[in-house]
Each structure stands twice: as structure tokens, then as C-alpha cells.
Amino acid sequence: MNAFGAAPGYRAAATLPLRVELVRQLRRRRTVLTLGFLALLPFLLLLAFTVGRDDRNRGAATLVDLATAGGLNFVVFTIFSTANFLLVLVVALFFGDSVASEASWSSLRYLLAAPVPRGRLLRQKAGVAALLSVFALVLLPAVAMAVGVLAYGAGNLVSPTGQSLDFATAAGRLALVPVYLAVHLAWVAGLALLLSVSTDAPLGAVGGAVMMSILSQILETIEALGDLRDYLPTRFNSAWADLLASPIDWTDLASGAFSGLAYATAFGLAARYRFATKDITS
Amino acid sequence: MGPHPPPVTAENVVIDVPGGPGVATAVQLDATVYRPAVTPAPAVLVAHGFGGSKDSVSAQATALARRGFVVLAWTARGFGASSGQIALDSPDYEVADARALVDWLAKRPDVVRDAPGDPRVGVTGASYGGALALLLAGTDRRVDALAPEITWNDLAQALFPNAAGQGSIPSDTPAAGAFAPNGVFKRDWAGYFFGAGPAGPGPCGRFRPEICAAYVQAATTGGPTPQIVAMLHRSSPATVAGTITAPTLLIQGEQDTLFGLDQADATARQLAAAGAPLKVIWYAGGHDGAPPTAALQDQVGDWFDYYLRRIGTNPGMGFDYQVQGIFGTRRDLAPRTVHAAAYPGLGSAPVQHRELILYGTPQQVVRPPGGSPAALSSLPGLNVLRGGAVNLDGVAMDVPGQSAMFVTDPLPDPVEIVGAPRMRLRVAATPTAGVPPTEAVLFVKLYDLGPDGRRTLPGGVVAPVRIGPLPAGGGPVEFTVTLAGVVRPVQAGHRLVIAVATTDRGYALPAQPAGYTVSLGDDAHLAVPVVAGEQAAGPFPTVQLAGLGGLAAVVAVSGVLAALRRRRAEDADPGLVEVPLVVTGLTKCYPGGLTAVDELSFRVEHGQVLGLLGPNGAGKTTVLRMLMGLIQPTSGELRAFGHRVNAGAAVLSRIGSFVEGPGFLPHLTGIDNLRLYWAATGRPPADAGIDDVLAIAGLGHAVHRRVATYSHGMRQRLAIAQAMLGRPDLLVLDEPTNGLDPPQIHAMREVLRAYAARGATVLVSSHLLAEVEQICSHVVVMHRGALVAAGTVAEIVAGTGTVSFTVDDPVHAAAVLRGLTGVDVMEVERHVVHAHLDGLPCAAAVTALVGAGIGVEAVAARQALEEAFLQLVSGEAVE
């Protein structure tokens, strides 16, 4: 028996290894379906573009026209059409579901009594949710890239403001987009985690985080709020597009990274405090 | 800006100014003075746009006052609450008014003066107000800085444009217009503004009679008379801009079919010639788009800060243009700003041109009688109403037969058009109804044609030309067209198309039908201006990076604090290391006043099988949850093997628990659940004893099925098996036989006995008294959170002995039993009589009953513990 009265072989730092938690999550249908859907989405977009191709009205160019201008533009369109909602939802799902689903299955109390220390449980859960989220954020553009290049060729990237980037440079820039999104969407992760430790209903945690994102985007459209809108967590949602400019304008990217991580830190610390002190009654 | 912006006081004043020529009485101007926190301060005049009032600039005025300027906003004569009549920024009226306002400011003690009667003052305004700013600065040396926005240089050219140049047209600057005389009346815009003038008595509203008369004439004849041109010219900054030396920030819109980029270009050339420090900004907006943005107004504020308050960094003298992108202005696709060191052609290198070859044969075009149907290029005034929300690039349409088309090859690489392209055109008269036209009125447009056939008219702008006289014999006239200035990124693979149309709905057209032959000039090139620049990027994000560092520090500190707290929580009593569980003064109060556990103390010794007995709601489960570290006690403590139990205490690894039902991942099989659970403990796989516990669970092949498919009993057994993983020294089971069928209950009892016999300790909670009596060696009875009794089962049961007789005639049986010595009939049910035999052998009682002719079906000792329990909890309902 060791000094802390533990059973032989027990070490708090060895509990709930990432590998184990990853297996527990990867064998869930919701994980497989979510990742599968993200991998399928570019094919659906391609199908939609192919089917709806005969619309030749003389209206202004649309985002869709640009999307089919080249494989890289297809990737940009895919990210553009998913960054503000779908990817938010995915991140909220992986984090919001993490603790709340265990609570809803009643397995949380057995993990805590194993014992997996609460701080460690939260950290490992968040770590695996982060791994899955980053994988999702990389998976979507990667599949879109493969689909786009096969369907529309490896041409230059044309930005929405008409700038042209050669394939190699643009592909490198696009590789940075998931990095930015991962950092910026950390606020969603933090909020979802906080809600996840506050409720036994996974849907409530996921939905709550998504609702907050939608609310923030609605507030953003209210001009009367003026500079206050700069403090909204979704204010720098689209700053990833600055990565495609020449040269890269880092101002909004840095602001978005700071904004995302600042909210994530506040929410994350609140989640840790709440989880460490709450009575587990599920 | 801090959280508390400096206070600004606004005061409404009425300022009397001279009426001007032909006006006998003074004009009262309705004005507001915005005073900053600290005075004296430099002043800024803020003039409003046509149709507005001092209230339409209040946001900008407040922002400037917050920066520290005394701001004077006033309603121009003829508008709002000011008296007088509209004279279209006439030097005799509106401009004289503004000079009087400068006089008025010079008398104010809160305004800084450069000399007696000369306040330090800047002036800004958009459109109508922008022209006023230029006209004031050109006629009053006291103006120290100005920022005119989206305004005209020559109002006659703005309302009667003619882009056909036959002489030499300056080509050093990016958007130099032809400014040829005898232009085409911009009917829709003029009508829109005449209509936007405030209503008043008579058809002229509050316009001065000469303005009104000029409009009526232009609107009915479509042609500019020399009188109208002279009158509009007087209201034009072109007359005075060549004398302005005050630093000027010139802002013009790229979506502006009223005051195009050529107007600002002309002003810029005059200002540069006069030597005024000049910065030019073209932004993605204008009269057909969004008004100048808050960010632009901030730049205006910076301009005044630098030149009036002498603070801030030098805003420089460069040229910024915004590339709006191909989807119109959207917040999520903000335009990108390109910064060039200088406005080309003003003392710097002239603008560069890309020469693109145009193709197209001579083409016949006709103008129908009355000019209808007509081509559509833009919708004047729409975005004034809609706040710039509508993208008009896509509305353009041409009428078949009315336009000639000339086209370039697909561009091999992208081209960014910045300014006014130019080309050579030839027009010849075609006789229509036998009468050849003497002059040509044509509208030249530049389309961006995508490979998919989609055409876009950038900015919705057209260049109207009136060229004449045309040779009667049908010979051509060749001339240069300076197209309307645009900022347009054209993608590789796109073509540029020049459309030469005979009609446009925005303009007054000759009513006579006409036919022309349009062809390219000898030089079939389209010269496209390009301005090299750097994309404006924000400053290095120092603040944000510092913020990220701060966040890292916060996380690190909180991590250290958490580690310290964990260390403090370690607490062991060496005297109790052999005692599996000691509960001392344990209390749990829930918010709302419910006390679930009240000063509970008991001990579980090594090798005991202890029953925690109590009715539902007695607090048993709360005790067990505290024992698992799931709930924090309000006071008191639990010690397992001497170690205090907290959330996540390491000693919990010696306790196996099953509390309040199973908890499994429904998507995994039973065996995977156990394996992953054990893996989650981080302990060596060999220590799990997974085969042993599976044998106890007795699920057979079902362990390879998903738990979601299990029955309640199967999950129950799997959960008890999970609790036994790793052979815990203390096994805690909450209602373990709940949901099990009788053979399983029996098996479970055997398992627990065997488990305890091997030297472990078992704590079982139950409300099933018989179960506790049969399984447990010791019992703790709880009621309403408090301890009622504790001891061995034998101790608790001692002195009680009740037997239940199942008989065919209970009433008779009760009478018989009562007749026996010492027997006390407790209760008579439908077929059962419960009696306290008090030492009488059971057989004797049965004999007596049978002897009395009563059929006895069964005899059972009633759960003795229940008896004791009922007595202990003084008659409270058990179930």
C-alpha cells in the first residue's frame, strides 16, 4: 500500500488515459456519424453544384460561382459555408456531450469513484474532445480539397476580393485555416464544457453552446451596439479569410485567437471550478 | 476608447446669418454645439448631406467632440428648422453662411484661436456638405483642415456628364474624366434630389426660384443651357479648389453614379496644384452603396487630430482604395484596403495602364423613338433609402439592338482595374426614317464577363457621351471615351466587354429615333489603369499577443493553485489503517433546508458484512455517495482505511461500489464496458480479475452483446461484477438484489458471503429487511438521516420472535392462539395470522391450531429484523 492509501498499482496520473477515452468515444455512433457526415459534405456540395449548373441568369456573381472556379476555391466555399454554424455545432457536440453524456448514462459516478480525480477527468475528456474537434476541422477541408481538385482542377485560388494566389501558396494558407478555427472556436469548446458539467442532459449542453453562438451572431448584426460588438465571441468568426489575403493581415486573426482563448480560459476555469465543487447526483 | 468616454455636452443654438443677395431678412440657422470635456479646443464644422439636417450628423459630431473638438453642426438654409431657401451651396448663400459660422466660432472663448478673429477650425461633410467644405476652404483662409466626402468637383459635369473627349485628356491620374461640355442630363438623380428637397409652398418647395427654374428647364428639355451650366459651376468646388492649401482628406465612393471617381480626381488635381497636403481614399460605397463608414470617420478624426490638435501620427499623403470583392458589401466579406504611397500623377509617377486588345466589327445600333425601352445600369437613390444594403452590380441589362459590344480575349492573369479605363470609339450616323442624326448620344459601359457567361457591371456606372456634329454623309467621328472610374478585380479567364448603348434609363434621352454605326477606333486598345499598392494590414498585433501571454499566466497560476489544494486535501489517520470505514458526525444538508444525513456515526470492522438498513428516503444512498466522494459532506467525515474520503481520494481505489443502479456505455458490449472501465482506473490489467467477476455476473455469451440490449437484471449483475473488479478491500453495494429474480438473489447472497469470507469487507444497503438479516453479520439502522440502531443482527433481533401462520380460517386461528399462554396475536390478515409466541415452540402452536380443526398451509418466522425495525422507527411506514 502506498502513502496515500491507494490500491496497488493505482496512480491518479494514470487514470483515464487519452487512448482509453478516445476508444470510448470513437466507438460511439454519434462520433462516427458526425465525422462521416463531414467527410460526405464536400461530395454533397459537389453534387449540388453539378445538378444546379444550368442556372444562367445574368445576375451578379455569387459565392457559388467562385466556389466552382477551382479546387481551392471549393475548399474555401466549403469552409465558408460551414464555419459559422456546422463547425460550431461539431465542436459544441464533442465538448458539450463529453461529461453530460456520462452523467446521463450514470457512468460518471463510477469513473469518479474509480477514482479518476475530477480535474483529471475533465482534462482528459476535454483533451479527447479537442482531438476529435481538430480532426473534424482538418477532415472537412482535406476531403473538400481532394474532391475540389478532382472536380475543378488545381488552379489558382481567387479570393472573394479578387486576389489570386498560386496553388502551392494557397494550399499552405488553407492549411492554416483549421489552425485558426481550432483556436478561435475554443470559446465554443469552453462554453460547451461548462454547460456539460452543469447539466445531465447532453442535448442541453450542446444546444446551449450553439444557441449562444447564434445569439452572438444576431447581436453582431445590430448596428446600434457599435464597438460593443467587438467583444462578441463570434466577432472574428470570419477572420480566417484574412489568411488568404496577400500579405496576411494578422490583426483580426490575432484578435480572434485572443478572443477565442480568453473566453475559453474563462469558461474552462469556471467549468473546472464547478466540476470540482459540485455534488454529483446523476 | 475607455469604458467611460469623456462627457460631451450638446447645446442647441440658433445663429442668425445675413440673408445674402436679394434676401432682406437674416436667416436663422438651427445649430448644435458639441463641447468636449476640455476647452478651449480647436473647432470642427460638420455639414450635412442634401435632404438631411444637423441631426443626421450627430453621431459623427459627438465622436469628434469626444476626441476633444468643439463641434458645430447646423442645418443648412432651406432645410429642417433653419429658415431661408436652398441655393445649392451657392457662394452667396450657403458658403457665406459657413463663413459667418467661422466668425461665430471665432468669438467663442472655448475655441482655440490662431489669431484674433481666426479660430483654428476644420470642416467636413458628405455630398452636399462635402462640396460646402471645399467651397468654404476655398473662400476662407481661416479653414485649417478639411475632409470632404463623396462630393462633386463640378456640379455641371456631375449632372450633365460627357465622357467623349476630342482634345487631350489628362491621363496621369487614375480617374481623370473627359469633362466635355454639352453633356447628357442625369435625369433620375437630379429628379431624386429635387424631390428630396423639403416641401414648401408652390411647385418649387424651398428651392430658390433660379434653381427651380433651371431644374424645370433641364428636366423638360434634357439639355444644359449656358445659364444652367454657369449657375451650377458657381456652386462647384472646381472654381476655388485651386486655391486651397489647407490639408485635405478627400474621400470618394466607388459605388457612386452621382458623383463618380472622376469628380474627386479633378479636385485632387486642383488641390495638388495648389500645394495642399492631400490624402485620397476611395472606399467601397458611395451614393449607390453605403455612406462613409465609422472607420472612415475615424480616419477623418485622426486627420483633424493631427492637423488641428497636433497630436497623433502623421496620416501621410498616400492613396487608399478598397477592393470590394465580387459579392457586394457584406460584413462577413469585408472589402480589402490597398495602400499606395501616393495618388498617381500628382507630383509622383503617372498611373500605369494595362493595354488590352478589343475585338468587334462595326455594329449598327438604334435608339427607339422616345428612348423607350431603355437599358438599365443602376437604380439611383435606391441605396440612399436602403442604407447601402443592396448590391446593384447585377441589375444591369441591355436592350437587344440598342448596344454594340466589343470584347477582349480572356485575361491570361488577373487584373485589378483602379480608375477610369479609356478607349477610342468611332461613330457614324445611319439615316433613320431618311433623316440622319446630327449628333450621337451613347452610353459606354464596361462589363466583367465570366467564363460561364455571367456579366457584371462594376459599380453600376456608365459613361454617357454626346458627340457631334456627325458628318451628314455618314462618315465617322472618332473620339476618346473615358469610362466611369471603378475598382474592380477581374479574374483570369474573364473577358472585359465594352457595351455602347443608345439608351439608359438614368438619363434624359433625345426623343427622336436615331441609328448609328459604332466601331472601334484605329487604336483598338482598352487602356486599363492599375495602381500598385500594398494591401493595408493592421499593425503588429502586440496587444493581442500580450493578452495571449496573460491568458497563459492565468492558466498556469490556476493549475498551481489546484495542485496545492489537492495536496492539502490529503489526510490520513495512522491509527485507523486497518478499519475499512469509520463514519463520524456525518451530516449532509441540501440547499433548501433538507437534511438528508444527520450526525451519523458508525464503524465497519474488517471482515464484516454490514447492512445499512432503512426505509426509502432514510439517507442511505446519500451516505454511500459521500463514501464514493461524489457528494461533499456538510460536516463530519468518512475515513476509509484511515484516509479521509474526498472527491477523487486515492483510497477510493480500494473501494468497489455499486450505488443507485448501473452506469454503462450503452453502445459497448458488457465485456468491453468492464475492460474499458478497468483501463480507466489505470491499474495493471492483470489485477482486474475480469474472468472471476464475469463468472459472478453469470451473463454467459451475453457479455458480447451491447449493454443497450440488456435487461435490468443483467445490467444489475454486470454492475456488481464491475464493483468487484480488482478485488476491492471494501465492497459497497446499494440494493444489490433489486430487480433480481429469486434464484439470482440466492446466488448473490452466496457470492457476498464468499467475498467476505476471503477477508474483504462488504457494506450492503437495503430496505429489504429479510435480505439484511440473511446476508449480514452486522446492521446499522437509519431513519430520516439519523442512526437508529447499530450492532450485530443477533443483537438487534434479540428478544423478538414473531411467527406467521397461513391458515384457512384466520379469525378462528387468532382466537385459538390467544388462548395459549403467553402468545400475543399481533395482526390478522386475510389468510395470515401474525403472533408473538414469546418462547413457545412453534410446533406447539401448530399442534393447537390443527387440533382446533384449522387447516394450516404454512408457518414462517416473520422477518425478525423487520419487527425490530418497525419498533425502532416507531411505526413509520416501511414502504
Query: Which value, in Å, is the CA radius of gyration of chain B?
Result: 48 Å
Which two chains share the most extensive interface? A-B, 89 and 96 residues
Instruction: Please provide the ordered H/E string of secondary-structure elements of chain A.
Output: HHHHHHHEEHHHH
Question: Please, what is the oligomeric state?
Answer: heterodimer
Radius of gyration of chain A: 21 Å
How many E-type strands of chain A?
2
Structure write-up:
The complex is a heterodimer of chains A (282) and B (879). Chain A is built from 11 helices and 2 strands, in the order H-H-H-H-H-H-H-E-E-H-H-H-H. The two termini of chain A are 31 Å apart. The model of chain A is unreliable at 56-60 (pLDDT under 50). Chain A is 67% helix and 1% strand. Chain A has a two-stranded antiparallel ribbon with strand order 1-2. Chain A is mainly alpha-helical and 282 residues long. In chain B, the strands form 7 sheets. In chain B, strands 9, 14, 15, 16, 18, 19, 20, 21, 22, 24, 25 and 26 form a 12-stranded antiparallel β-sheet that branches. In chain B, strands 1-2-4-3-7-8-10-11-12-13-27 form an 11-stranded mixed β-sheet, with helices on both faces. Residues 327-332, 385-390 and 875-879 of chain B have low confidence and may be disordered. At the A-B interface, helix 1, helix 3, helix 6, helix 7 and helix 11 of A face strand 20, strand 23, strand 27, helix 11 and helix 13 of B.
